[in-house]
């Protein structure tokens, strides 16, 4: 106890020091046995209580309380009882405060204010309002110490009606121009999501302080209006008010939400000039801005330079995952564990999102274990994330298990499960889940319908898909969104109803997208309809002249029909426009390490054995009657070179690598960033048969389960 009050970060004024020492003396007196006889006077106790109230020293105050009880000081002493009740209220011990409060007959406005404040600040908003009502009932007048806390209680309860009533009382009693009351009003209206009212108040405030500006900025940011937040900030700069750390922490998320990199950098400059960078919340906000603006280099340099915590790691892990570098996200996750910083739910969910991008199933499983250990796995949002991760990483069984074990299932979880089945071509199961959901009276939204329609299209369930498509408008009175049409075109096209698909495109209520024409093009390839393919391709070229995929599709369609002149014409256009195919890239996970292969990649340490394995495979497959389909090679080279180019495709490198490094019979799991080409599809089917391996491949469109020479997609993808 000795010196506890003096050991403050500041150096007290000599007179204040004397005062503090005096308090310490009293405390020493109290703790001694003889304190029983050496009683303090009522005034001394009052002064002491006040100082304990100011410093919120709960335990010291309680000791003093005991002393006052034993020495009988409290009997019929309204002055001390008031101080004591106020002390407990300010310390947040409301039940103790209330017992003393109820015994006081003459309650003054100081005591009532303290109680209202205590209730409002400790989560007892209703009690706070009830006491305020009693206060008026007792004939006491509320003042500028009452209103801020009554308003806080209204804001926490989100009770707009009472909030407005109190506001009108404030206006009548002339407290609106008081800065504390005014700031509380700004805060309460921003909690009510009524920024218009807040702004009107703000504009007519006679004086504004830093809190007023900060409240407005954070109000706009939290209510999804970052533009206004920034405009208030620039007004603030012009008014000459200087921003502090709290301002930065509120304005930086607005920059992040608007992806205003330039402004974020200006703020960064401000932070450096004003030395606010030492505050971890400011640094974290800056990291968040850079990550949201996809400026990972700046984010990283800040991250490396300053102290970091879970929040900084979360921003970085999410940032890398969003910017397509899931590998770095996983590396950072390892780092957070190494540095001994506790990952929270946000961290683990971000890592799950990174895992499903690169199909890091084993890594995802260890994150699942961690989520369970930390007790997060019971939350619906976490369960949904797990369903997604397992489905995207190729393990649908685990998705189902998580789904079944979830204590509470919401719309997003149902949609995730339906999408999971769809991704794996299990249309009937997806529809069954959808029906279960309807039976539980859960109203599906657009996303759910997209998932179930897409599941129908992946499984070729035409009638079921059409039924659901009409149900959206008729039963649910919802409008079709472009994704619904996209699934329907895919579904009809796949089943060979090309004219119907085309008719749907020409009559749909929304503008067709590139995706929709591309779906029709794919269907035309499968069903050999060159005329419609040309129409689809022209529309696709119109929508995005730089997209190379429609050109490749059209050229493939001509190649199948052996119209070599047309093939050459399309290829010449591609060359003259300088269009390039996005490089193919495949991933395969081995003992929690994900290996990445590009087309013709020779950088892998095992490169030599991978290529010799591929050569072996090529001979074996040829002996079994395989003839390469070189139509997907866009270059004008001879057949032999074309064939060689096919064997450079990234998925084959990944498969060869997996064949070398895993025991016979192990299931191989590959992820590809683009759609798998025709020849790779054939080759993978053959490998699955000749090597006796099940190969699961996720391409940009869906999952392919290759087993015994057959693919689950039925050769349509
Ligand atoms: Zn290929
Ligand atoms: Zn397939």
**Biggest sheet character:** 6 strands, mixed
Report strand order across the widest sheet: 2-1-3-4-5-6
Give the distance, in angstroms, between the N- and C-terminal Cα atoms.
75 Å
Beta-strand content: under 5%
| Low-pLDDT segments | 1-12
* Quaternary structure: single chain
- The helical percent reads 55-70%
**Averaged pLDDT, please?**
88
From the spread of the alpha carbons, the general shape counts as: elongated
Structural class: mainly alpha
| DSSP, total strands | 6
What Rg is obtained from the alpha carbons, in whole angstroms?
A: 35 Å
Secondary structure tally, helices? 37
Task: List the bound ligands.
Answer: zinc ion
Written account of the structure:
α2 packs antiparallel against α3, α8 runs parallel beside α10 (179-191) and α21 (361-373) runs antiparallel to α22. The radius of gyration is 35 Å and the shape is elongated. The model is unreliable at 1-12 (pLDDT under 50). It contains 37 helices and six strands. A hairpin with a 2-residue loop joins β5 and β6. Among the domains are: 507-581; 586-711, no CATH class. The longest helix is centred in the first third of the chain and has 18 residues, at 14-31. It has 717 residues and is mainly alpha-helical. Helices cover 66% and strands 4% of the residues. Bound molecules: zinc ion (ZN) (2 copies). The site of one zinc ion has 5 residues, from loops.
Task: Please provide a brief summary of the model.
The protein has 37 helices and 6 strands. Residues 681, 704, 711, 713, 717 line the site of one zinc ion.
């Amino acid at each position: 106890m000795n010196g506890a009050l003096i050991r403050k970060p500041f150096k007290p004024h000599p007179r204040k020091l004397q005062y503090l020492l005096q308090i310490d003396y009293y405390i020493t007196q109290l703790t001694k046995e003889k304190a029983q006889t050496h009683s303090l006077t009522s005034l001394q106790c009052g002064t002491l209580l006040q100082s304990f109230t100011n410093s919120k020293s709960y335990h010291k105050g309680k000791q003093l309380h005991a002393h006052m009880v034993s020495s009988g000081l409290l009997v019929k002493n309204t002055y001390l009882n008031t101080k004591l009740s106020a002390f407990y209220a300010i310390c947040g011990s409301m039940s103790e405060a209330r017992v003393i409060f109820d015994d006081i007959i003459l309650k003054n406005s100081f005591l009532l204010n303290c109680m209202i404040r205590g209730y409002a600040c400790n989560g007892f908003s209703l009690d706070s309002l009830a006491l305020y009502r009693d206060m008026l009932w007792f004939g006491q007048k509320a003042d500028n110490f009452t209103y801020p806390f009554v308003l806080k209680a209204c804001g926490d309860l989100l009770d707009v009606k009472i909030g407005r009533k109190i506001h009108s009382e404030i206006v009548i009693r002339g407290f609106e121009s008081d800065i504390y009351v005014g700031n509380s009003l700004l805060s309460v209206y921003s909690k009510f999501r009524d920024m218009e009212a807040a702004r009107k108040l703000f504009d007519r405030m006679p004086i504004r302080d830093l809190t007023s500006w900060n409240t407005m900025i954070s109000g706009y940011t939290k209510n999804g209006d970052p533009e206004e937040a920034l405009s208030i900030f620039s007004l603030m700069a012009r008014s000459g008010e200087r921003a502090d750390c709290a301002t930065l922490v509120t304005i930086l998320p607005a920059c992040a939400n608007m992806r205003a990199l330039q402004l974020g950098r200006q703020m960064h400059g401000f932070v450096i000039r004003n030395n606010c960078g030492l505050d971890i919340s400011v640094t974290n906000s800056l990291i968040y801005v850079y990550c949201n603006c996809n400026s990972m280099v700046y984010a990283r340099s800040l991250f490396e330079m300053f102290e970091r915590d879970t929040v900084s790691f979360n921003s970085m892990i999410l940032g890398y995952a969003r910017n397509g570098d899931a590998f770095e996200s996983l590396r950072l996750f390892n780092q957070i564990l190494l540095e001994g910083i506790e990952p929270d739910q946000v961290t683990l969910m971000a890592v799950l999102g990174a895992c499903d991008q690169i199909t890091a199933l084993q890594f995802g499983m260890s994150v699942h274990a961690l989520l369970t250990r930390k007790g997060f796995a019971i939350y619906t949002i976490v369960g949904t994330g797990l369903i997604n991760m397992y489905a995207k990483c190729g393990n649908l069984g685990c998705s189902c298990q998580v789904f079944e074990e979830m204590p509470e299932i919401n719309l997003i979880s149902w949609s995730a499960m339906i999408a999971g089945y769809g991704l794996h071509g299990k249309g009937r199961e997806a529809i069954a889940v959808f029906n279960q959901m309807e039976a539980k009276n859960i109203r599906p939204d657009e996303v759910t319908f997209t998932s179930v329609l897409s599941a129908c299209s992946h499984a070729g369930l035409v009638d079921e898909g059409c039924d659901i498509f009409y149900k959206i408008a008729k039963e649910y009175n919802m409008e079709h969104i472009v994704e619904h049409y996209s699934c329907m075109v895919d579904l009809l096209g796949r089943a060979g109803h090309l004219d119907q698909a085309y008719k749907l495109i020409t009559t749909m209520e929304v503008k067709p997208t590139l995706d929709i024409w591309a779906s029709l093009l794919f269907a035309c390839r499968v069903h050999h309809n060159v005329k419609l393919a040309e129409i689809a391709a022209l529309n696709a070229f119109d929508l995005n002249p730089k997209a190379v995929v429609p050109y490749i599709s059209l050229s493939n369609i001509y190649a199948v029909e052996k119209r070599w002149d047309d093939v050459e014409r399309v290829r010449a256009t591609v060359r003259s426009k300088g269009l390039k195919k996005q490089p193919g890239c495949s991933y395969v996970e081995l003992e929690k390490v994900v290996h990445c292969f590009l087309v013709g990649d020779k950088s892998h340490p095992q490169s030599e054995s991978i290529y010799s394995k591929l050569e072996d495979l090529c001979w074996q497959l040829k002996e079994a009657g395989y003839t390469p389909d070189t139509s997907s090679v866009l270059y004008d080279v001879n057949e032999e070179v074309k064939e060689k180019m096919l064997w450079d495709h990234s998925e084959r490198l990944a498969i060869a690598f997996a064949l070398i490094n895993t025991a016979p019979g192990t299931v191989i799991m590959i992820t590809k960033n683009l759609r798998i080409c025709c020849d790779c599809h054939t080759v993978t089917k053959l490998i699955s048969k000749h090597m006796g391996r099940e190969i699961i491949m996720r391409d940009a469109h869906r999952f392919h389960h290759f087993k015994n020479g057959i693919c689950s997609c039925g050769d349509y993808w």
